[in-house]
Hints:
Elements: H1 5-18, E1 23-27, H2 30-41, E2 45-51, E3 58-63, E4 77-79, E5 88-89, E6 103-108, E7 111-114, H3 115-121, E8 125-131
Antiparallel strand pairs: 1-3, 2-3, 4-8, 5-8, 6-7, 6-8
Amino acid sequence: MNTDxxxxxxxxxxxxxMAKHRVVEMPASNVKKAITKILFEKGYILxxxxxxxxxxxxxxxxLKYHPATKMPAMxxxxxxxxPGLRRYVHAEGLPRVLNGLGIAIISTSSGIMTDKEAxxxxxxxxxxxxxx
Length: 132
């Protein structure tokens, strides 16, 4: 049993990037699907595919690397809020990652979104992770 599925998701991404894998596969959930869509929209991953089976389904993520230097698009993946210590912020206290060059993924009452979208909508929530 996994007590923190989001941390497992981020660790699989981090390990795949460090091992220079092309595709990473993991179990699916609605939160993981939303985070995957955000990573694709912001250009941190090349592509993704949701596969449904009779159980919970899987997510296949194609990792993105620079064609010439082979450097990954994601250099830092950090879990912020965890089951033992949840991190909540108000709309005024939303974090900036690398002065706006990275993203913070926030779980709000309006859904899962980046820190920039939450700032624009003036909503706070739980800070899930930092990606840069």
